[in-house]
Each structure stands twice: as structure tokens, then as C-alpha cells.
Amino acid sequence: MDVECLVIGAGPAGSMAARELAARGIETVVIEKRQEIGAPKRCAEGVSKHGLEKLGIEIHKLGISRVIKGAALYSPSGKKVVMEGHDMDGYVLERKVFEKHLASEAIKEGARYMIKTQAVRMERENGRWNVGIRSLDGDDEIRAKLVIGADGVESKVGRWAGLKTLNRLTDYHSGIQFEMAGVNADENYIHLFFGNDVAPLGYAWIFPKAFSSNVGLGILEKGAKMRAYDYLKKFIEEHDDIFKNASPIEINSGGVPVAHFTGMVSEGVMLVGDAAQLVNPIHGGGITRAMHSSIMAAEVAGHALKEDDLSRERLEEYEKKWNDEYEETTSKLMKLRGFLEKLEDKDFEMLADMLEGEDIFKLTQAKLSFFVKKLIKKPSLLGLATKYLKE
Ligand code: FAD
After folding, report:
1. 36-94, pLDDT tens digit by residue?
2. Ligand 1 atom showing the smallest separation from residue 38 Cα
3. CA 79 to CA 81: how far, in whole Å?
4. Would you say the CB of residue 90 lies under 6 angstroms from ligand 1?
5. Whose CA is nearest to atom 16 of ligand 1?
6. Residue 102 — pLDDT band, cuts 50, 70, 90?
7. Which of ligand 1's atoms lies nearest the C-alpha of 293?
8. CA of 235 to the centre of ligand 1 (A)
9. Spatial CB neighbours of 269, under 8 Å, sequence gap ≥ 6
10. CA 37 to CA 101: how far, in whole Å?
11. 45 lines ligand 1 (CB under 6 A)
């Protein structure tokens, strides 16, 4: 089969890319290795309403499991700081529905989907990519002018295209989660728990859904004394008030790439979403960023295909667009992560005492200088903050 554009992976990034490409009249085929789009999820399903609105992305109402007012953050000793207002509204999605809807929109625009179809190799020949595929119909090949690598955190497309996509092990969070029914937590908020015995160099979460909750945590292996799964069991055992009547109905696990690499494009190849490791390095959220990267990539691809110029230099416009919008924020958030990773439990307690919800919101927006000033009276933290957060 010969196509103009082949999208590998039908997560939020792949289907958004397919929708945007097909809407430009580009012949687009999407392959997805799983038997069902959106399942099993590897995600807590939280998104910010404001973030979606900024991109003009509308979520089908059936894809929204619960509307959220804000976030409640808990220090290791249980001190609570609430963040609400200031664009803190959000949704906990039903990804299975949300992703299928996104795929249906791409199909409406003319994209063609093949499920249970895996890309197994990719070679360059006569200015096209030959992509080996494996499906229920056996092995076959698709020849494409442009390949969009939307194959998530375990992406192979970048490597096949000769890009250096491997980061340090310390740049991947291990995530594990139960979806649980019977959880007793305020359903208007997502709940985030911090502490080196709770989730070393990460955090634990409860994200309420329509009739269940995503309960999980992400850790960095380098700070861990046991498996993420053991930390999650311990977290549940230690919060009897929340979980005494709760039981799991699903288990999910996955990696979160919390660092970014350069080189998101190659000759006839663009990487989007987790394949390009574009998640927010502080909270690990990647759905909105994945879709945004695809909107940017499709715009550049549309022009490049018309000009019949799919050279790396031409496609680099996409990477430039991404960097113009996100590079500065991402690098500040990486510094903030470096600082947070050095904190001991007593420091989290100190921060819980001195920070309001509004301050934490500002931090998540990569506003760091006010924070350093605020730490003047806390010499033990000021040194760390000056080292890590100096702009
Ligand atoms: P994916 O959603 O991973 O999609 C990639 C797709 O490619 C998959 O469907 C896969 O099957 C397919 N694929 C892979 N290889 C091939 C191949 N060779 N051939 C064909 N198909 C292939 N983000 C948030 O915004 N909010 C959250 O609350 C949140 N919670 C998370 C919790 C956990 C535990 C984890 C692990 C991640 C979480 N994330 C969250 C991150 C979020 O899930 C990702 O950033 C997002 O899914 C990225 O979308 P994507 O389309 O790039 O990749």
C-alpha cells in the first residue's frame, strides 16, 4: 500500500495528528497495535480545562468522567493545601471513550484506521519509508512519504529513523495505578500526596471518576527502596479512612518520560506526544501536550507535503514551533524538579506551612523567582533554591 502519510499509534497524539492531516486533504492511514483504541489505559486521565480551551480542543461529553474544581495537596504529615480558582478546573476523562471519539473525528475527516496492526520495522527507500506491519492478515508493508511517530513512551519510530531518543533511566517515572470503586475522597478535587516514604521523587494521587477513582503513584527508581507497586499497596493500607471500603476494578502501569530530547524530526519523520517525550516534567501530564504537538506537526506537514519537501531541515520548523512555545517553561520546570528531588520530608512540611494554593499554581506555571524570594527566611531551603532555581 502507498500512502502520503502513515501515523503509527492511535493515542491522543496519533489521532489528533490524523484528524488534522486528513482535514487538510492529506491521505492518512493510522495503525494501532492494540485491539482497542484507548484501552487498557496507562493514565490517571486528568486534564486541565484551561489547557484544552487554549488549544481549542473540545472533549466529547461522554469522554468526561468527572468535572474537577481543583487539587488538594498533602504533605507527608497530612497537612493539606488546596488549589482552586486560577484556571484549576479540569476533567478526569474516560480515556477509552475520549480516544475513540478522537479517532472517530479523524475518520470523519477521511483518515483510515487499522487496529491490531503493529509497525515492526522501517527502512528508507527511494525517498519513502517502507514500514513493515504485522496484523491478523499477516505481514505486509506500507510505503509512506511521511511517517508520524505517535507510538508513545516505548517509541521505536525515532530509533528506526536514526534519532537519539534514549534518555537516562532517571528521566523516566514508573507509574502504577489501581482504578478503585468505593473510595472515600472529596470528588470535587484531585488529591496529590507527597513524601519520600509515600512516593520517592514523585507523588501519589487519587483522581475521582464518575463511580470510581484512579489511585496511583509515580516514582523515580533511583530514590526507591521497593517497587512502585509496593509503595502503592502501602499508601492504600496507610489511608484506611479513604480506602477501607474500596476495591480495585482495574490495574494499570506505565512509564512517564519526564525529560525532553532534541531532534524530533528526521527525513520524512516527525515524532509527536510521548514518542518525543513531551510530558510536563513536573506533574507528568502529557495528554494536552501530546495533542498540541500533533496540531503543530500537522500544520508543518501540510505545507511540507504541498511543497514536496520532507527533508529534515523543512520538518524542523515543527521542532522550532514546539521549542518557541515550550522550551523556556520546560527548562524552568526541569530546574524546579531538580530542586524538589532534593527535598526531605521536613522540607515538604515547611513548604506546606508557607505556600498557599496560589503560590503552588504559580510554580506549576514556571514562575520561580517569587519563590526564591519567599524562601529568604528559610536558610536551609534558600541554598538549594538558589542552586537549582536561579534563572
Ligand atoms: P500513548 O497514549 O501512549 O499512545 C501511543 C499508542 O501507540 C498506543 O496506543 C500504543 O499501543 C501505540 N503503539 C506503540 N507502538 C506501536 C507500534 N509499533 N505499532 C502500532 N502502534 C503502536 N497524562 C495526563 O495528561 N494526565 C494524567 O493524569 C496522566 N496520568 C498518567 C498516569 C500514568 C500511570 C502514566 C504512565 C501516564 C500518565 N499520563 C498522564 C501521561 C499520558 O498518559 C501520556 O502523556 C499520553 O498518553 C501521551 O499520548 P500519546 O498519544 O503520545 O501516547
Report:
1. 999 999 999 999 999 999 999 999 999 999 999 999 999 999 999 999 987 889 999 99
2. 9
3. 7
4. no
5. 151
6. very high
7. 52
8. 25
9. 129, 146, 147, 148, 149, 157, 158, 161, 163, 315
10. 10
11. yes
> What is the DSSP annotation of 147-169?
EEE---TT--HHHHTT------G
CA 284 to chain centre: 6
Structural domains in the chain? 2-45+94-167+259-310 (3.50.50.60), 169-257 (3.30.9.10), 333-389 (no CATH)
Residue 215: what pLDDT?
A: 98
- Cα of 101 vs centre of ligand 1, distance in Å, is 16
CA distance 296 to 391: 28
3 state DSSP class of 277: coil
Q: Report the run of H or E that residue 370 belongs to, with start and end.
A: helix 369-374
Distance 165 CA to ligand 1 centre (A): 16
Q: For residue range 253-288, what is the model confidence (pLDDT) as tens digits?
A: 998 887 777 789 999 999 999 999 999 988 889 999
Could you tell me if 96 and 216 are in contact, meaning their C-beta atoms sit under 8 angstroms apart?
no
